[in-house]
Specification:
With 189 residues, the chain is an all-beta fold. It has strands spanning 6-10, 15-19, 22-24, 29-33, 38-42, 45-47, 52-56, 62-67, 70-72, 77-81, 85-90, 93-96, 104-106, 111-115, 118-121, 125-129, 132-136, 139-142, 153-157, 162-166, 169-171, 175-179, 183-187. The termini are far apart. The relative contact order is 0.12.
Length: 189
C-alpha cells in the first residue's frame, strides 16, 4: 500500500507464486514483473495504482499465468505487457472507468492468451495490441462511448498484430475489432 514503485516486484530471473494479496495506491504497479521472471499470480485485488495493476517490463523471455484476479481502476492500464513476455490471462476482471488508455496493452514481441476474462471500461480499447493475442470466451463490456470519435474498440489491432478472436462477447464498443495491417481470424463471436 502506497509504495514508491510496486506493491510486489519480481526481477533477476525470479520465480514466484503470488496469491491473495491486495496491492493498491502504489507509485507504479500493484505487481511488477521484469528481468526474465516467471510467475503465477492468482486471487489478488490490484486497484488504484498510478500506472498499472500488473506491469510486465521488457525482457528477453518472461512467462506468467495471471488467473482469477480483480484488476480495477488503475491509472493507465489494468495490464501492460511489454516485449519478451508469454502471458496467459485466465478468468480475471480488468476494469477502469474513464480515461483514454486501453484497459490492457499488449506490445509487439509479446504473446498473450486471454480466456474467460471480463474486460470492462471506456478507454480507446479493451485490448490494444501490435503483439500476438489469442482471445477465447472473453466478455468485452464497453461502459460509455467516448464523446468524440474513434477509437473505442473491443480490440484495436495495430500494424503487425496477430489476433485470433474466438467465441467472445462484445457489447457497448464502437467496433468489436478494428484492425490496420494486422492478421485477424475471428470466429463464433
Amino acid at each position: 500500500y502506497r509504495n514508491g514503485l510496486t506493491g510486489i516486484g519480481l526481477k533477476e530471473h525470479a520465480s514466484a507464486t503470488i496469491l491473495q494479496n491486495e496491492c493498491f495506491e502504489n507509485g507504479r504497479s500493484g505487481i511488477g514483473l521484469s528481468d526474465n521472471s516467471s510467475a503465477i499470480v492468482r486471487h489478488n485485488h490490484l486497484h488504484h495504482n498510478k500506472a498499472s495493476g500488473i506491469g510486465f517490463a521488457k525482457c528477453a523471455t518472461g512467462t506468467a499465468l495471471i488467473e482469477n484476479n480483480r484488476v480495477i481502476d488503475n491509472g493507465m492500464v489494468a495490464a501492460g505487457v511489454n516485449p519478451g513476455w508469454n502471458v496467459t490471462f485466465k478468468d480475471n476482471v480488468f476494469s477502469r472507468e474513464g480515461g483514454m488508455p486501453p484497459i490492457v496493452m499488449v506490445f509487439g514481441g509479446s504473446e498473450t492468451i486471454f480466456t474467460g476474462n471480463t474486460i470492462r471500461g471506456s478507454g480507446v480499447a479493451g485490448i490494444r495490441t501490435n503483439g500476438k493475442v489469442r482471445a477465447l470466451r472473453n466478455r468485452f463490456e464497453g461502459t460509455k462511448m467516448r464523446a468524440v470519435g474513434p477509437p473505442n474498440y473491443g480490440i484495436w489491432a495495430l500494424p503487425g498484430a496477430n489476433i485470433q478472436f474466438t467465441d467472445n462477447t462484445v457489447t457497448g464498443w464502437r467496433h468489436a475489432i478494428f484492425a490496420d495491417r494486422a492478421k485477424v481470424i475471428a470466429k463464433g463471436n
